[in-house]
Amino acid sequence: MIKLGEKIKSLRKQKNISQEVFANYLGVSFQAVSKWENGNTMPDVTLIPAIASFFGVSTDELFDFNLYEIEKNVDAIVTEHTKYWDIDLNKSEQILREGLKKYPGNDILLTCLMGILLDLDRIDEVIRIGIALVESTKYDDLRFDAYRIIAMAYKEQGEYQAAKDAIEHIPEIYFTKLEVAAHLLEGEEMYEAAQKQKNISADDLIDMLIIAGKYLKENGETEKANSQFRIALKVMDAFEEDFIENKWFKATVYEYTNEQRKEIETLLAE
Length: 270
Known about the structure:
The protein is mainly α. It is built from 16 helices and no strands. It has helices spanning 4-15, 19-26, 30-37, 48-55, 59-62, 67-82, 89-102, 107-119, 123-136, 140-156, 160-167, 177-184, 187-218, 222-238, 253-256, 258-269. The radius of gyration is 23 Å and the shape is elongated.
């Protein structure tokens, strides 16, 4: 596999630009670029998406990775990190960081890392990675997800307008890939799509009912608010008889909404 510094040098010469011009674009010194090209140092991981974007290549192309191999390995890293999401965020972050050492600038790993860093309250780093990612990724779904996480980060910082601006980059979508698959595919593929969309839809509906209820409660419309909370409880109760498809889920909607149930019961009691 070609070394990153050699690849950068080759791409830079193909564009017929100097180290100074390239360095100015990245906001680094030309000495830093020289060290990369000579193999003495490596670019910071947060610069990889910008480097790939500058040369008009994917991060995988930048590193000359076998695309099939990287997809398989990245999927394994993502699966491993999710095991620790709810129990050890630092371990989850460590797994993603190790993955990024192997595949610097990988869009999927960076998106996952943004989510972990948000939970760890490392807001500035979330925004920095997110801005680089939305400018470099070639995948719309990852770009929109990055904007979603950026918006959440700005909200945590109390920057309401910045959060609103980030949300404006996310298109309004009235159907999902899973919905279309459930309606149009057959057999196991249809069933898997339906099961996944069912849980996502139930989770979203419960969240929206709680959000609407809280707004109404804050504005003194207690009876309307309580109606939203009661509907949310009924949705949860409707899933009491549901079963777990272990291939895709760790719990049913009824089981993993326990915290929301407690929150609603507290809101109704106030």
